[in-house]
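// run 5 | inverse folding | seed 20
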């Protein structure tokens, strides 16, 4: 079950909850579709931040394989036709996105985190690739994430052994943003999303595009500097840019409206 609520200043934060704790929030095809619909509805509401969370002991344990017959399963159709479009949709959401990751974050769940801008994890979260026991391989961008952040040797170590990293270890290794005590994770992430919802949304999205270009297109220093210069010039015409300068001159806190 996928739940969508609106909270924060002016209902400007969408909170999407994976709520199937008995299955550790594992996703079947129907749940993937429902999650995509929730992101679409949140975007249509014009929210200025989004929080993805999982109910219960785990964030998302990956694909829900209950009832799947390996003899007839088409994993490529599920991953390439359903999951990948969802991850691309999440990565392009028109506001900053946050994820609160506790417990298991595996497979498709790891992909959900990878497609999110800012990921806070519980110190004792479990992150890795236990799929060797299924005769399957890591998916949903997991190979890219592990090789990019950990290097090929550590990536293969995690894949072959099936060992899981704690949330604290994953953050120390550069996989995600911050780790916090499990009991503080939800409130900590909600507070961060609410702060972002009062910020200069266009400026945040400009930075996301710059980060994406550095990551995916491997643009160099001076190309990145040029892109920053162009982005800054484009922001000059935004209402939030004008408000930020006015607040600076008047020695007050700015009031941004995401425009």
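// decoded
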């Amino acid at each position: 079950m996928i739940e969508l609520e609106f909270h924060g200043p002016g209902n400007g934060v969408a909170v999407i909850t994976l709520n199937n704790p008995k299955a550790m929030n594992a996703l079947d095809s129907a749940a993937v579709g429902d999650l995509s619909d929730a992101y679409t509805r949140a975007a249509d509401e014009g929210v200025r931040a989004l929080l993805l969370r999982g109910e219960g002991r785990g964030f998302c344990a990956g694909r829900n394989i209950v009832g799947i017959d390996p003899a007839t399963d088409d994993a490529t159709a599920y991953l390439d036709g359903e999951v990948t479009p969802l991850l691309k949709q999440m990565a392009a959401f028109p506001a900053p996105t946050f994820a609160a990751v506790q417990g298991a974050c595996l497979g498709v769940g790891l992909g959900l985190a990878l497609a999110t801008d800012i990921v806070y994890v519980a110190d004792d979260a479990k992150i890795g690739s236990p799929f060797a026991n299924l005769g399957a391989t890591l998916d949903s961008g997991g190979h890219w994430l592990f090789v990019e952040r950990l290097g090929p040797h550590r990536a293969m170590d995690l894949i072959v052994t099936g060992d899981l990293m704690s949330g604290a270890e994953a953050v120390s290794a550069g996989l995600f943003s911050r780790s916090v005590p499990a009991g503080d994770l939800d409130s900590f992430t909600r507070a961060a999303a609410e702060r972002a919802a009062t910020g200069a949304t266009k400026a945040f999205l400009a930075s996301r595009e710059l980060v994406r270009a550095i990551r995916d297109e491997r643009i160099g220093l001076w190309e990145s500097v040029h892109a920053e210069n162009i982005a800054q010039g484009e922001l000059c015409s935004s209402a939030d840019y004008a408000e930020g300068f006015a607040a600076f001159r008047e020695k007050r806190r700015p009031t941004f409206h995401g425009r």
